[in-house]
Design brief:
Elements: H1 2-8, H2 16-49, H3 61-87, H4 96-127, H5 130-148
Helix pairs in contact: 2-3, 3-4, 4-5
């Protein structure tokens, strides 16, 4: 069994050199992944914002999409971390400080998403187009009610 675990660990022994390489690779991948995620969400939201669909042609979509992605990602992590913290006794590893900081990030991104909902509704009202307003008001109302009741 020890041989199998050794092969699966691919030579990892937990030495200082291994931890240093791990941290360097982790920082490099995080530095590459963060701009990639931001750019992908921004490009996709720009695709939506230049479409001819009523209510979707606004420049608020890039920050709105990025904030929504961060919000939902943190919500998923908290949904998994809180029960696991209690079930496996990880209170010393996942502290209340971690949960509090994650809640602050969720509050900030949730406010950005709420601002996006409000701004979308305002722009449809400001545009003066009845089709845009009727479509956007029903869609925004549905989404805002879902956002509030989360």
């Amino acid at each position: 069994m020890k041989i199998i675990y050794g092969m699966l660990a691919m030579g990892w022994r937990g030495s200082a050199r291994h931890w240093h390489r791990y941290q360097s690779a982790y920082l490099l991948l995080a530095g590459l992944a963060t701009p990639l995620v931001l750019s992908v969400h921004s490009v996709i939201s720009f695709d939506f914002s230049v479409s001819i669909v009523p209510g979707w042609h606004t420049t608020i979509f890039p920050p709105y999409f990025v904030a929504g992605a961060i919000y939902s990602g943190f919500a998923m992590v908290l949904t998994i971390a809180i029960p696991l913290r209690k079930a496996y006794g990880l209170e010393d590893f996942i502290t209340m400080r971690h949960l509090d900081n994650m809640a602050k990030v969720m509050l900030a991104t949730g406010l950005i998403v709420a601002y996006g909902y409000f701004f979308e509704f305002f722009l449809s009202l400001y545009s003066g187009t009845s089709l845009t307003f009727s479509w956007s008001s029903s869609a925004s109302t549905d989404r805002m009610l879902r956002f509030i009741t989360r």
